[in-house]
Amino acid sequence: MKKAVIVAASTLLVCTSCVTKGKYLLAENGRLEAIGRAEALKEQLGKCGDDNTQLSARLNELLRDTAQMGRNIRNYQTMLNANMGEQDKLNSLLSEKMSELDKRERTINELQDLIHAQNEKVQNLLNSVKDALLGFSSDELTVTEKDGKVYVAMSDKLLFESGSAKVDKRGKEALAKLAEVLNKQTDIDVYIEGHTDSKPINTAQFKDNWDLSVIRATSVVRILTKDYGVNPLQIQPSGRGEFMPVADNETADGRSKNRRTEIIMAPKLNKLLEILK
């Protein structure tokens, strides 16, 4: 009986030892796994800390870059606003210059039209004078156009006797023909210029060539205005003496050409002058 009890107790002890060891091993394995997981978590936490540090550094870098970019953008905006202000000024100046250019172009076109009309008027006047004086020879008078003016140069043998300021019959015929043209041309200015040769003159009537040239021009003006009705407001006499020769005064033929009365007709330039102002 005693032996049986000892055997039973030994068997129970052995069984109890077996259960405790299994639990122990199981618990130990759990502990080791927990330690492993803890180490892994610690390592992960370490990595997370490093990553967090790097992210913080990167974030700070981005913040600095963003702040600098903001400053640059504000500077660019300031520059852009300044440039836009200058651009507005330039656009305004450009518009002003374009307007001025348009005005100038219109003025130029208007001037060109007026000049063209003036040239046509001069040409028509030239043709009318030539037609009116067709019956006179080139020794008596010449009709030319120069610088927008029509010149009728009448020799002294057509108009005057030597040393005289009295217009003879043939000269009056020429002036009558010319007056017919002038009376139809109310918008022209007429200048009568007396010219002499270089031979001095000193008579009871004329003190010198100046005197002779002026009185001859006045005689022509008087006939045109009083006898043939040319408007005195559009005609003007002047004397040039011997100072504007067209030929050599050393020869008789040259002196003859220099003794002349020039009737100069020029279309009025009022409209052109108004535009140029």
UniProtKB/TrEMBL annotation:
Keywords: Coiled coil, Membrane. InterPro entries: Bact_OuterMem_StrucFunc, OmpA-like, OmpA-like_sf. Residues 147-269 form the OmpA-like domain. It comes from the Bacteria. Pfam families: OmpA (PF00691). The keyword Membrane applies. GO terms for cellular component: membrane. Residues 94-128 form a coiled coil. The keyword Membrane applies. This is Chemotaxis protein MotB.
